[in-house]
Amino acid sequence: MSLACQALWLLPGLLLGLLHFRGLERNADLYAHGRTGPGLALQGLRMAVTACALVAAALQGAWPLLATSAGFLLARLLLVRPPPPSLGPPLGPPLGKQPR
Question: What's the whole-number mean pLDDT along residues 74-94?
Answer without folding.
Answer: 76
